[in-house]
Amino acid sequence: MKITVLSGSTIGSKTRTAMTYVRSFIEKNYPDEEVTLLDLADFDLVFSDGRDFREYKGDTKIVTETLMASDVILVGTPIFQASIPGSLKNVFDLLPQDGLRDKVAGILVTAGSAKHYLIAETQLKPILSYMKAQIVQTYTFMEERDFYRKEIVNEDALFRIERLIEDTMVLVETYQKAKAAKEAQYGF
């Protein structure tokens, strides 16, 4: 199974720190899975212009094709100005309308304030749903106080990340079994 861990911002360190932990936890606890960390800070993406994702070149092609080939996408996003970053929205705009069909998506949010807790519910989940992802209903929300010097210092935050990963893996396994059973009904 291909798992992509997407750090959805070109600036800041908290989301990258959390998503690096996500990748490490998956590699340690699910060693048979193929895990890729895509940190948007490491890529130079063009703005979406409506082309098919396969027509883009360079970093944009790498990011879009990696996401399209994934079975699981764990989306990490900071909250800026009470919204997801434009860089993350651009990634979704680069993909086809139903580009996340048959993919399981988990969400991890980092924010400077607890006031931004519902941004994932009001902005990110609707986008993922529109693109046909199977969404892990609970998500991990982390605040400024959970980090110190580019490390996660809150044990409860680490537990919530681990639970998100475990819930994601259960959902993808369940979804794949249900999908295989449905396809077996066709008999060809």
UniProtKB/TrEMBL annotation:
Instruction: Spell out the molecular function terms from Gene Ontology.
Output: oxidoreductase activity
Q: Which Gene3D superfamilies does its entry note?
A: 3.40.50.360
Coiled-coil region(s): none
Residue ranges of domain NADPH-dependent FMN reductase-like in the record: 1-143
Keyword set for this entry? Flavoprotein, FMN, Oxidoreductase
What InterPro entries is this protein classified in? Answer: Flavoprotein-like_sf (IPR029039), FMN_Rdtase-like_dom (IPR005025), NAD(P)H-dep_FMN_reductase (IPR051814)
Q: What is this protein called?
A: FMN reductase
Q: Which organism is it from?
A: Alkalibacterium olivapovliticus
